[in-house]
Specification:
The protein is of the alpha/beta class. It is built from five helices and five strands; from the N terminus they run βαβαβαβαβα. 49% of the residues lie in helices and 13% in strands. A five-stranded parallel sheet has the order 3-2-1-4-5, with helices on both faces.
Length: 185
């Protein structure tokens, strides 16, 4: 798939940065529908309003991807109202601290970073992947990480751990989809 034309696209972390750029690109390429998830309600509302000026219907949901309950509720609503997603872009991510690991503000920093960057993509993919597979159409599951998922970084231990988890999980799911016969070249 070289284009998202004619596809329903969901982008997490869509209110700003790379997520917003992915959403803008989806509109430019002619996506059929666009679903935007982010925790920043104000920025999400602004982004959705600007993208709605195009020819693509835009749905915006305030969702914390680290919350199993929020992901479940929002995914059920999207599947019921929009239908199966063909392109899922797991983009949401956070960075906390620029300190040595032992200087972090405590467990809250660790749980927040691991929750959004490592667990979040898993929760979101698990919510949509069965319908993607059942749709029979060409679909894509994209999970963004960073070079921190491949190279260790001092003063970024928790962030690096979260991105290593995202890379390992994503590659394992790729192999599982291939083994189960759900990939096409």
């Amino acid at each position: 798939m070289r284009s998202v034309a004619g596809k329903t696209v969901l982008v997490t972390g869509a209110a700003a940065g790379l997520g917003r750029l992915f959403a803008e690109r989806a509109v430019a390429e002619g996506a059929t529908a666009l679903v935007l998830w982010d925790v920043d309600e104000q920025a999400l509302t602004t982004t959705a309003a600007e993208l709605e000026q195009g020819r693509v219907p835009v749905r915006a949901d305030v969702v914390d991807v680290s919350s199993p309950e929020q992901v479940r509720r929002a995914a059920e609503s999207v599947l019921a109202e929009v239908g199966a997603v063909q392109v899922l872009i797991n983009n949401a991510g956070i960075v906390r601290g620029n300190t040595y690991f032992w200087e972090h503000d405590g467990v809250d920093d660790v749980e927040a970073v691991m929750g959004v960057n490592a667990v979040g993509p898993m929760l979101v993919a698990r919510a949509f992947l069965p319908a993607m597979i059942d749709s029979g159409s060409e679909c894509r599951l994209v999970t963004l990480a960073s070079s921190a998922g491949l190279v260790s970084n001092p003063r970024m231990a928790v962030y690096a751990a979260s991105k290593w988890a995202a890379v390992g999980w994503s590659d394992s799911v790729r192999l599982e989809l291939d083994q189960a016969g759900h990939t096409r070249v």
